[in-house]
Structure prediction request, 578 residues.
Amino acid sequence: MVENQHAKRVIGVLIVLDIIVVLFPTLHWSLTSGSPTMSVAYVLGSAVWVVLSLFVMAALDKKQKES
Amino acid sequence: MDMLIGYGGIALFFGLIVFVLERTKRKEVSFSDYATGGRSFGSIFSTMAFVNTWFPGTIFISFAGLAAGAGVIGFYVLHYSLLAVVVMFFLAKPVHVWGKKFDIRTQADLLGLRYNSKPVRVIAALIGIVATVPWIILGMQSLGLVFRYLSFGSVGAAAAIVIGVIVISARQIWTIKFGMRGIVISDMVQGIFAYILGTFAILGLLVWLVTNGHGFAQVDPAHFHLPGPTSELGGLYFFAIVLTGALGGWCWPDIFVRLFSAKNTKTIKQSAVQAAPLLLIFGSSLLLLSLLASSYPGVKDAPDDVWFIVSGVGGVLMVTFAGICVLAATMGNIGANLQALGTQAANDVIGVGRAKRLDDPKSAKIVVGALTVISALGALALKNVSGGLVVLALVSYQGIVQLAPTLFFGIFWRRGNAVSATASMLTGFATACVLQWFYPVSIPWLGGLTSGVAALVVNALVYVICAFAIRQPLAEQDRVKQLFDHLRESPAADESAHRPLAESSVGSERN
Prediction:
C-alpha cells in the first residue's frame, strides 16, 4: 500500500516535470536564444526526457499492479 | 523512364497494400466490429496504427518545411506528440474499460455515455466532423507534390493534384470494405515504409548532408531561436502551439478511436511506451535533416519541398522511395480519418436522429463512401485555393481543441455534467472562432497565446463553474459514481467480454 502511494507520487512528479520541461516558456526563452548547440540540445533533450520519464512511469505502473 | 520508375514504384506499393488487405480480410459482422476492429489488436499493431494516424504524410512536407524554413520552432511537433503519448498512457484505462463494457464505438459515443446526454454526443460528433474535413481535403491535395516530383517534370502541379486525389480516393475502396480492421492492418505495412524504412533513408541523407558541408555552422543563426517575449509572435506562442497539439490531438476522432481497437488496457499502455521512442527517433531525425538542409540549394525558396529536394541526391530511386513514404503516411491518416468520421456520423448523428442503436455496418460504409466522394470533389474543386484551405484547417485545429475540457474533465473528474459539457464546448468554439478571425496567428495582448488556447481558458472556466453551480439529480450522481466505480474493479473486468447495454442501468438510456 505504502509502495503504491510512493509510486503514484513519483508518477505525479514525473508528469509535472514533463510539463515544465516541455511547456515552461522561460525555459524556451533562456535555452534557445543564442547558441545553436544549446538550442538543439534543448529541443532534442526535452523530447528524450519525456520518453525516458514515460518508461519509468510504465515500470512503476506495472509494479503497482503486481503488488 | 524516370517517370515510369516513380509512378511504377507508387503502383507497386499500392498493389502491396491491396494484396495484404485482401489476404487478411474477414467479414465484419456488426457495426462495433466495423468501428473498432473487434477490439482485438495487440500492442505492435496498435502502436503502428497510432503512429500512422498521428503523423500524416504532411509530416514530410509542411512540418519538415517549417523546420527547414523557420528552424527549431518546427520541433514543436515532436514535443506535442510525445506529451500526447504520455496522455495516452493515462487515458488507456478509463477509455478502454468503458469502451468494452458499454460497447462504445466512437469518441462522441463515449461522451454521450459519460454525460448521459444526446446533445453532448451530437455536438461533439459534429465538431469532430466539421473540423476534420478540411484536413482530409488538404491531405488529398498534398499528394500532388508526390506525383509532381515522381513525374520528374512531366506532370504539372494541377494535374498532379488530380492524380493524387484519384489514387487516394481509390484506396478508400478498401477502407469502406474492411473498416477499422483493414485500417489497422494496412497501417502496419504503411508504417513500416514511412517511419521505419523512412528513418533509415533520413539517417542516410543526414550523413550525406553533414559530410558534404551542410552542418549546423551553415544554418542561419536565426533558425536556432524560439519566439521570445519581444518577438512578433509573442513569448507564449511556442507554449500555445505545443499545448494545442498535445490536448487537441486526442480530440480528433480518428486518433481517439485508436483506444477502442486495442485488446485491453495493458495493450494501450504498451503501445504508448513503444510509440514514444518511434516518434522520437523518426521525428527528431526528419526535423534535424530539414534543419540542416536549410542551407541546401533550392530549399530556402521552397522549404515544403525539402524532403524531395534532399532525396534528389540519391537519384531517381531515392526520390521514388521518398514519394512512397509520403503516400504511405497519407494513406494511413486519410483512411483513418474517413473511417472514423463515417462511423461517427452514422453512430452519433444518424443513429441518434433515428433513436436507434445501429447494428449493421452498412450505414457506416455508405457514410464513409459519401465522405470520400465529398472530400475528393472538394480537393479537386479547391485545387487552386489551397492557401485559404490551410487557413481553414488551422482554424479547425483551434476549434477541435475546444473538446478537450469536456473530454478530459469528463474522463478524469466526476463532477462535470451535461450542461457544463454543452456550455463549455459551445462557448469555447465560439470564442475560438471570434479570436481566430481577429488574430489568425497569435494574440499580442495575451503574450502570443493562440485563439485556441485563449478560448480553452474560457471553455474550462465555464465547465468548472457549471459543474459546481448545477446540482445533478441523485439518480444521475449515482449513475456517474457507478461509471467510475467500474474503473476500480479488478483487472479481470478489463479482459472480460462487454456486457450488453440492457443489463446496465449506467448505459441503459443510450441508443
